[in-house]
Specification:
By secondary structure, the chain is an alpha/beta fold. The chain folds into two domains: 41 residues, Winged helix-like DNA-binding domain superfamily/Winged helix DNA-binding domain (Arc Repressor Mutant, subunit A), CATH 1.10.10; 256 residues, Rossmann fold, CATH 3.40.50. The chain is built from 14 helices and ten strands. Strand 9, helix 13 and strand 10 form a beta-alpha-beta unit. Helix 2 packs across helix 3. The longest helix has 19 residues. The mean pLDDT is 89.
Length: 316
C-alpha cells in the first residue's frame, strides 16, 4: 500500500517543483505509469486539489458561452470599460497572441479594410514572430477618395507585412469598378490575378464587417452614394464583409454593385483554415450575427458589451 507521504511527495514534485512525470519516476525509482496512478490517487484522497482562477471570471464565462452558442473555435472578449484607444490596444494584443500561435513558415495572410482593422494593426506588436516567407495580401481593391484612403486594404496589408517581416502585395484596382466589363478586364490582368491566386491559397484571413449605415466606411469612403445605400437597405441587406453583402440570415445578396466588386469571395474566406473576425459595437450586431449564422469565421475578437448583446440575441 502506498502511503499518503509518497502521494504528497509526488504531487509536490509535479505541481510545485514542476518536474515531469518521467523525471519524478527516475528520481523516486517508480515507473511513469505508477506516477500517473499516484497523482490520480492523490486527487481522490484530497491531497491534490486543482483550482482554476480566471483573471476575469465574467469575461472567461462570456467567451465560453459565446463560442458554444455560435460554434466558434475560439472567442476572445476584451474589457469595454476603457476608451476606444484602450479597446484597440487590447484587441491588438489578443490578435498578436493568435498570430503568434498560428502563423507558420510560408503562410499567406489576407486582411481587409476599415477603421477598426487599421487602428488594431497600428497597435499590434509582432516582434516575437520569426517565420520565413510570410505573404500578406489585401482582400479587396483600393478604397477611399478622401481621408478614408488610410483605411485602404492595400495600405493595411503593407503595414501588417512590415510588422511581421513579410512580403505584401497590392491589388492594382478599385474595390468597385466602373462596370462589369472593366471588372473582368482588371481581374484577368496578371497583377490582380496573382493576388487572387494567393487569396485562394491563404491560411489566415483577418476580417471586419461593415453595417449598412450612412456613417459606415462603405458610404463614408465614397465607394457608394446615398441612392445606392438606400437600394441596399431596401433589399434587406444588413452589412458587408469584404463588400460581399449579407442579409440578417447570413444569405449573400447579389446586387448590381456586387457584380462590379473586386474582392475576396465568401467562398475563399470560408475555405480559409483560420478566419478571424475583429468587430464590436451595437450598430454592427446584425451584420455580426449574419456572419456568425453563415459560419464565415471561426475566431471572434470583440468587446464585453457586444458579446453580452450577442448572448441575448434579441435582434431581428
Amino acid at each position: 500500500m502506498i502511503s499518503d507521504k509518497i502521494l504528497y511527495k509526488v504531487a509536490y514534485l509535479y505541481y510545485i517543483e514542476g518536474l515531469t512525470q518521467n523525471e519524478i519516476a527516475q528520481k523516486l525509482n517508480f515507473s511513469r505509469n505508477k506516477i500517473m496512478t499516484f497523482l490520480k490517487k492523490g486527487k481522490g484522497k484530497g491531497i491534490i486539489e486543482i483550482k482554476v482562477n480566471p483573471v476575469n471570471e465574467d469575461l472567461a464565462d462570456l467567451e465560453i458561452k459565446l463560442a458554444k452558442k455560435y460554434n466558434l473555435k475560439e472567442c476572445i472578449i476584451v474589457d469595454s470599460s476603457g476608451n476606444l484607444e484602450y479597446l484597440y490596444k487590447e484587441m491588438a494584443s489578443e490578435l498578436s497572441l493568435l498570430l503568434e500561435k498560428y502563423v507558420q513558415n510560408d503562410y499567406i495572410i489576407g486582411i481587409t479594410y476599415g477603421k477598426t482593422i487599421r487602428k488594431i494593426i497600428n497597435e499590434i506588436q509582432l516582434d516575437s514572430i520569426n517565420k520565413n516567407n510570410i505573404k500578406v495580401v489585401p482582400l479587396m481593391g483600393g478604397t477611399g477618395i478622401t481621408d478614408s484612403i488610410k483605411y485602404n486594404s492595400n495600405i493595411i496589408a503593407s503595414q501588417l507585412s512590415e510588422k511581421i517581416r513579410g512580403t505584401s502585395y497590392i491589388i492594382h484596382a478599385p474595390a468597385i469598378s466602373d462596370s462589369i466589363d472593366i471588372k473582368k478586364k482588371l481581374e484577368s490582368s496578371p497583377p490582380v490575378k496573382l493576388v487572387y491566386d494567393l487569396i485562394n491559397k491563404m491560411n489566415i484571413a483577418i476580417v471586419t464587417v461593415g453595417s449598412i449605415d450612412a456613417d459606415d466606411a462603405i458610404v463614408r469612403s465614397g465607394e457608394i452614394g446615398i441612392k445606392e445605400y438606400n437600394d441596399l437597405k431596401n433589399l434587406g441587406i444588413v452589412g458587408e464583409i469584404c463588400f460581399n453583402f449579407l442579409d440578417k440570415s447570413g444569405n449573400n445578396i447579389i446586387t448590381e454593385i456586387s457584380k462590379k466588386i473586386i474582392s475576396a469571395s465568401l467562398e475563399s474566406i470560408k475555405n480559409t483554415n483560420i478566419k478571424i473576425l475583429l468587430s464590436f459595437s451595437e450598430k454592427k450586431i446584425n451584420i455580426i450575427l449574419s456572419v456568425l449564422y453563415a459560419k464565415l469565421i471561426d475566431i471572434f475578437i470583440t468587446d464585453k458589451d457586444t458579446a453580452s448583446l450577442l448572448i441575448k440575441n434579441n435582434f431581428n
